[in-house]
Amino acid sequence: MVAIDIGIIIGGLVILCFGGYALVLGSVALAKKLQVSSIVIGLTVVAYGTSTPELATSIIAAIGSHTELILGNIVGSNISNVGMVIGISAIFAPLAMRKITTRRWLPIMIGVSLLLVVLSYDGEISQIDGVILLAGLIAFSIYTIKTAKKQNPVGDDVENEDPESEMALSKFHITNVPRALGFVFIGAILLFIGGQLTIDSAVSIAESLGISQMVIGITIIAIGTSLPELVTSIIAIRKKQMDIGIGNIVGSNIYNILFIGGVAGTIVGIPVIADAFTDFYIMIAFSLVLFIGLRKYIPRPVGVGLAIAYVVYLGYTLLL
Q: Are 76 and 217 in contact, with CB atoms under 8 Å apart?
């Protein structure tokens, strides 16, 4: 049966690739047609779309009383988003960062992570805590929409933007908003299906090895649900859309805590074991790497360092 699961994982990855391509295609076209900054599109439409596997997995886990998986999935996904996704993406090409990203969006991401830690100190993310997280999601969404009205169109305020960016944008032949939304919808659905196929088979393999739910959530499921972000970010980078690549990760990390943690916490309280705080602090440490000293771009050496640090973290988690 392991061979069948491996085959399903490969099929899931192929679907993820097509989904990521469709999502980026539609999102960039949508940003152009609506004259909205691509960083905002990355923070909202793309981030929501690529977070659907985490949401589905967490809801299924909540309904099935596998609550340890939920927290492991959220924290593990946020760590893998920075260590694996941004690390690997930066290895492909240095990632340009807007000033607004380091001055506004990254601090919000770190602040939301600290909020999760505070709410967890009593040993549980209760249903009331879930409501607080959802309220934070609503506030963040409103703030993002208001920010979108003040931002320049795609590519106008990116420092050191690649001169091929406009050429890359001209290759997107989506001429109207409904068609762009259609691509976004199809991409999100494909990401959901591909992510679920990959996750289900990976969990099946992991469970046969006797790995705990928390470890499965932090490693196998977190990596599986971060594959949409990885695929989407790499495709966005290849299309010279650095903003969508960075915005996708920052937005996904914020939504993972506020949206997924809020929904799952509201459905059923999420227990927080003492060992989880180590993972909380590691999650915040990975986020701080992006914030401290990286004002203009993330160079390849930093990408390599993030990827290596993530591999070390996985080894530490599996051997603990």
A: yes
Cβ atoms of 67 and 270 closer than 8 Å: yes
> Residue 105's closest CA among 285, 293, 247, 288?
247
Per residue, the 3-state secondary structure of the chain, as one string, reads CHHHHHHHHHHHHHHHHHHHHHHHHHHHHHHHHHCCCHHHHHHHHHHHHHCHHHHHHHHHHHHCCCHHHHHHHHHHHHHHHHHHHHHHHHHHCCEECCHHHHHHHHHHHHHHHHHHHHHHCCCEECHHHHHHHHHHHHHHHHHHHHHHHHCCCCCCCCCCCCCCHHHHHCCCCCCCHHHHHHHHHHHHHHHHHHHHHHHHHHHHHHHHCCCCHHHHHHHHHHHHHHHHHHHHHHHHHHCCCHHHHHHHHHHHHHHHHHHHHHHHHHHCCEECCCCHHHHHHHHHHHHHHHHCCCCCEECHHHHHHHHHHHHHHHHHHHHC
214-271 pLDDT, tens digit each? 787 788 778 877 777 777 777 776 666 666 667 767 888 898 899 889 988 898 888 8
Token output for 194: 């591909």
pTM > 0.70:
yes
- The structural domains of the chain, ordered by start, are 2-319 (1.20.1420.30)
Burial-class residue 163 by CB neighbours within 10 Å (0-12, 13-18, 19+): exposed
Contact (Cβ atoms closer than 8 angstroms) between residue 297 and residue 161:
no
| Interatomic CA distance for residues 91 and 304, integer angstroms | 6
161-170, long-range: CB within 8 Å, 24+ apart, which pairs?
161/96, 161/242, 162/96, 162/240, 162/242, 164/240, 165/240, 165/241, 167/240, 168/239, 168/240, 168/241, 169/28, 169/32, 169/240, 169/241
